[in-house]
Specification:
This protein is an alpha/beta fold. It has 17 helices and 29 strands. Strands 1-2-3-4-5-7-10 form a 7-stranded mixed β-sheet. Strands 11-18-17-16-12-13 form a 6-stranded mixed β-sheet, sandwiched between helices.
């Protein structure tokens, strides 16, 4: 019988490779084994989207990938060019604005999970998303990528997305920290704002992502804040993120967002990505090495950065048997479809034109290039090489084509990217655009009007192009209008066929003169990802009752918007390299409500194919978990099942410091069958009543009179109750 003897030279598995040990114990065991060179390898890139790796110790590289709506195609490895792989197709989820429009935190979790599973399949440890910058201006080029204008809604979406993704052993890198609210001069613009505005508007979603979501990565923004680049900003990174919020993960620079070795070493940057030039010339490479050897920088600073990177790497199971991922599955596509369906906002439905019944119409004219345009690859870094992307036209034909004759007419042509376009330091493709020529515009319009005349009903699919100047990274929009003369075309179409539905595919607000008054039905559909067309058709034909609500105000005109009202360059897009957020706290509906300006469609607005009633509001004093509990009954008084997003706003009657007219502090999405009533309970913590008091460097929920308002939008408040906060709570 063979008696196996333990070979003397087989060393026991080192502790850092023991998955039963804690992450901290594994880091403690691994760190001393690393040479200076190996440590430095963790804090700067060694390809466009990787860093670190110590082969002799069995430590793999850390692989990162964009983006917030799906795993981007393989890039590089050392340039911004596509790697030309054929196995890097992925599921395109609706982008941030479309997810926020669902007001469904469960779908934020589901989105994080889908992208996490697909990232694991592609051997990525860090996903560069979600993006959560507040929509300060409707012109913002990346509004599509973010969660809208309200900190509370953005925070709920962030927490769900991060939890869902990190449950899949993939790190969510929340971005761009902070105040990256426009694209113009994004790499250098210096943003100035008062402390309350920072704390109450631009930081809360990040704070929630770190404290509640447990995000283990934060990406520094390109811009400067109070004179220091955000990728190495002592106040933002060391004082607030790491010291105040207790962030234990890694701060990752935006690509080519690092500008100074000393600041990068001392001000909280942990991983430098995307700097131009050779990897050893990065700010945290040779200059950092030389600084350590010269005694300028203590090794302890490097060790802390390495710890933070190892914390991410080990948390993803990269040193262990990581679960296999999955990609482009039916389940992922079903989730993408649900997010797209629940994000569609019904803006108008006069006379009940919607939902359409294809059995009762002979001809449906689908008009508009956006009906056949694919958007998933748009947006530069957020683009996804979609395994599947159903266009609006495909969705409508699949749903109604067997019962009705569905025609198509281009109607208008979005501006075309000229062949020559430059790629900037951040890999952003800017391009010159060629709009259609007058004769082409007219011939397309004439054909579209004729198609409208020959149809029982028209579905006009309009919107933006999701390319330069039209919802795209690197450029802001130039105005709020639809592109390619769509406004005039819609007016001509509805003049010959009043049974016209307009479905807008955009990532940000648009104005709707002169046609809105004449068009009976309007849907805001956002970019919808892989199942965009399926989802739109499901809502158009009534398989799904729309339940989306606007995550941002649609203004009647740009000058009604807070960053544009004064028409001062210092407010937007900035002048002499600095931009002042003079509107302060009054962002989005906070501005429109406080200044009593009528929007085109208000924040939180969205219709349904049924109706809801709100009754029996009670606000009861708090328990341990909540300072106050808001309770009310919600009834579906219509004939179809549907879901309502009930919103809770807090108004402070006599604030010691100026506060917005009201602020969203809670919401719940409630599904109800016809005639069904549910009692809804929404807890409010002390933070819901608090403002940030710079004098105390703390949040203060001050005793006094408040009004709790409940309804289906920020301007449809059905119930109201006075509430007296009896004690003042001050805290962080
Ligand atoms: C880009 C974007 C950032 C992205 C990164 C890598 O310029 O600002 O969101 O994750 O660079 O592509």
């Amino acid at each position: 019988m063979f008696v196996g003897a333990l070979r003397a030279d087989v060393a026991p598995r080192p502790l850092y490779l023991d998955a039963t040990q804690s992450i901290e114990a594994r880091i403690d065991d691994l760190l001393p084994r690393l040479t200076l060179e190996e440590k430095l390898g963790f804090v700067h890139a060694n390809s466009k989207f990787s860093a670190g790796g110590v082969e002799r110790l069995g430590i793999p590289r850390l692989w990162l990938a964009d983006g917030p709506q799906g795993v981007r195609e393989e890039i590089g490895p050392d340039t911004w060019a596509s790697a030309g792989w054929t196995n890097d197709f992925a599921t395109a989820m609706p982008p941030g604005i479309g997810l926020a429009a669902t007001w469904n935190p469960e779908l934020a979790v589901a989105t994080g999970r889908v992208i996490g599973e697909e990232a694991r399949m592609r051997n990525k440890q860090v996903m560069l998303g979600p993006g959560l910058n507040i929509m300060r201006t409707p012109l913002g080029g990346r509004n599509y990528d973010y969660f809208g204008e309200d900190p509370w809604l953005a925070g709920r979406m962030t927490v769900g997305y991060v939890r869902g993704m990190q449950a899949e052993q993939v790190i969510a890198c929340i971005k761009h920290f902070a105040a990256n609210n426009q694209e113009q001069e994004r790499g250098r613009i210096n943003v100035e704002m008062d402390e309350r505005t920072l704390r109450e508007i631009y930081l809360p979603a990040f704070e929630a992502g770190v404290k509640e979501g447990g995000a283990l990565a934060v990406m520094g923004a390109y811009n400067q804040f109070r004179g220091e680049h955000c990728c190495h900003n002592d106040y933002l990174l060391n004082q607030i993120l790491k010291k105040e919020w207790g962030f234990t993960g890694a701060v990752i620079s935006d690509w080519s967002g690092t500008h100074d070795t000393r600041q990068a070493v001392l001000n909280g940057l942990d991983l430098e990505m995307g700097t131009n030039g050779a990897y050893d010339d990065f700010f945290l490479a040779k200059p950092f090495r030389e600084g350590i050897k010269a005694g300028t920088y203590p090794v302890a600073l490097l060790d802390d950065k390495v710890r933070r990177n190892l914390r991410m790497l080990i948390a993803t199971g990269a040193l262990d048997q990581r679960r296999p991922g999955s990609i482009n599955t039916a389940e992922h596509l079903a989730t993408a479809r649900r997010v797209a369906e629940e994000g569609i906002v019904l803006l108008k439905n006069t006379g009940g034109l919607l939902p359409l019944d294809p059995a009762k119409v002979t001809t449906i004219a689908v008009i508009g290039e956006n009906a056949v345009r694919k958007f998933a690859a748009g947006g530069n870094s957020a683009g996804v090489k979609a395994f599947r992307e159903i266009t609006a036209f495909e969705g409508i034909v699949a749903r109604a084509g067997a019962q009705a004759n569905v025609t198509f007419s281009t109607g208008y042509r979005q501006p075309v990217r000229r062949s020559v376009y430059q790629v900037d330091a951040a890999g952003v493709r800017g391009s010159e655009l060629s709009p259609a020529k007058p004769e082409e515009i007219e011939s397309l319009a004439v054909r579209a009007v004729r198609a409208a005349q020959e149809a029982d009903v028209v579905i006009f699919v309009g919107g933006l192009s999701h390319q330069t100047f039209g919802d795209d990274e690197g450029t802001d929009r130039r105005d709020l209008s639809l592109t390619a003369h769509q406004d005039e075309l819609i007016a001509r179409i509805v003049a010959v066929n009043p049974r016209t539905v307009v479905a807008l595919i955009t990532g940000s607000p648009v104005v709707m003169d002169p046609w809105l008054a004449k068009v009976p039905a309007v849907l805001q559909a956002w970019y919808g990802g892989s199942e965009a067309g399926t989802a739109l058709a499901a809502v158009l034909f009534g398989d799904v009752n729309p339940s989306g609500k606007l995550p941002c105000t649609f203004p009647k005109s740009l000058k009604d918007s807070p960053a544009h009202a004064a028409g001062l360059a210092r407010q937007f897009p900035g002048e002499n390299g600095t931009e002042h957020y003079d509107e302060g706290l009054l962002v989005g509906y906070r501005w429109f409500d406080t200044k009593q300006i009528e929007p085109l469609f208000p924040f939180g607005y969205g219709l349904s194919y049924t109706q809801f009633a709100y009754t029996n509001l009670k606000v009861v004093s708090g328990t341990a978990a909540a300072t106050a509990t808001v309770q009310f009954d919600l009834t579906n008084t219509g004939t179809r099942e549907g879901a309502e997003v009930a919103q809770v706003y807090v108004h402070s009657a006599h604030p010691r410091l100026a506060r917005p007219e009201k602020e969203l502090k809670g919401f719940a999405k409630v599904a109800l069958k016809p005639g069904e009533t549910k009692t809804v309970t929404i807890p409010l913590t002390s933070r819901a009543f608090a403002f940030y008091d710079p004098a105390q460097s703390a949040w203060s929920a001050e005793a006094g009179a408040y009004t709790i308002q409940v309804g289906g939008s920020s301007r449809d408040l059905r119930l109201e109750a006075n509430y007296q906060l009896t004690t003042t709570t001050v805290g962080r």
